[in-house]
Specification:
This protein is of the alpha+beta class and 283 residues long. The protein has helices spanning 53-77, 125-130, 134-145, 162-166, 173-193, 241-253, 265-271, and strands at 2-5, 26-29, 32-35, 38-41, 89-101, 104-115, 121-122, 168-169, 201-211, 214-223, 228-236. The protein has 2 domains: 24-173, no CATH class; 195-271, Nucleotidyltransferase, domain 5 (2-Layer Sandwich), CATH 3.30.420. Strands 5, 6, 7 and 8 form a 4-stranded antiparallel sheet that branches. The protein has a 3-stranded antiparallel sheet with strand order 9-10-11, with helices on one face. A two-stranded parallel sheet has the order 1-4. Helix 6 packs antiparallel against helix 7 (265-271). The longest helix is centred in the N-terminal third of the chain and has 25 residues, at 53-77.
Length: 283
């Protein structure tokens, strides 16, 4: 539940919730404390309204994230200003950190905790969740595969407000390129490591694609339902039988255990020609 902090109309000293000693009610989740209610200070995000609904939602979301981090600290350290004999950590100030937001990194102030047993710093679950950079890599790969260059990556991001944009980072050409390389390497390794034994293939195609001075030869299997499955990949200098034979031999040595659709690597290699780079296999 979200609450809106209204500006008080009476004159006098206003005591903000930073000085309240009561701990907010929370719903306990594995490793993450979620408050039952969060108060949004509209005065702090009033400027975001002029930049549209998305910028307003981002400002409110950052406040909610701050409340989630404070709830994690309260769950581990107990209420502020009160001794809790069952606490597992103590508050240890705060420092600047960064979280992932809309394909960029933005600076935030994050709380810190230290274990009561002397084990050192204790992570704040909410901050660990929002600071993960995995989503940055997925977004970079998605946009670049969609045709957006790393040089124009920042132009393709959704507007999140000038205040957030000024503090944003990780949108440079080099940063985006590094994430793209890392994510494609991971995706390729996972694809090539996938077991082949459960595939019901009826055809095998091999194609060579040139990238500058490099050639990548790809083996593609077609399932009985028409689905295409990447099976293997090898880099070679020319389109020749040796490269194809090595690729098919690697497939044969892998987890290809279905006896119903056996095939011969040597026969498949002989049927492949550099002109067509498509081959059928014996069954």
């Amino acid at each position: 539940m979200l609450g809106v902090a209204k500006t008080p109309t009476k004159k006098g000293t206003t005591v903000t919730n930073k000085y309240q000693k009561t701990m907010p009610k929370t719903s306990t989740k594995p490793g993450l404390a979620i408050p039952d209610a969060v108060t949004i200070a509209m005065g702090e995000i009033a400027e975001d309204m002029r930049e549209g609904l998305l910028a307003l939602a981002v400002g409110a979301g950052l406040q909610v994230m701050g409340s989630l981090m404070e709830a994690d600290v309260a769950a581990a350290c107990g209420p502020r200003g009160k001794h809790d004999p069952e606490r597992t950590a103590v508050r240890h100030g705060s420092e600047r950190g960064s979280v992932t937001l809309g394909g960029r990194r933005t600076s935030v102030q994050r709380p810190r905790m230290r274990g009561t047993s002397g084990a050192g710093e204790v992570p704040v679950p909410a901050y660990e969740l929002f600071s993960s950079s995995e989503i940055l890599g997925r977004m970079a790969m998605s946009k670049m595969l969609g045709g957006l260059s790393s040089r124009r990556y920042r132009v393709g991001l959704e507007p999140v407000g000038e205040k957030v944009e000024r503090a944003a980072s990780a949108t440079s050409k080099s940063a985006v390129s590094r994430r793209f390389v890392t994510m494609t390497e991971t995706a390729l390794a996972e694809s090539l490591a996938a077991p082949l034994g459960n595939l019901d293939l009826v055809a095998l195609m091999i194609d060579g694609v040139h990238f500058g001075e490099h050639l990548c030869v790809v083996a593609l299997g077609i399932g009985i339902d028409g689905t295409k499955h990447p099976l293997g990949l090898v880099e070679g200098s020319t389109e020749n039988t040796t490269v194809v034979t090595d690729l098919l031999t690697d497939l044969r040595a892998g987890d290809w255990t279905r006896p119903a659709r056996s095939w011969s690597a040597s026969t498949a290699a002989r049927r492949c020609t550099p002109a067509s780079w498509q081959c059928s296999t014996t069954r």
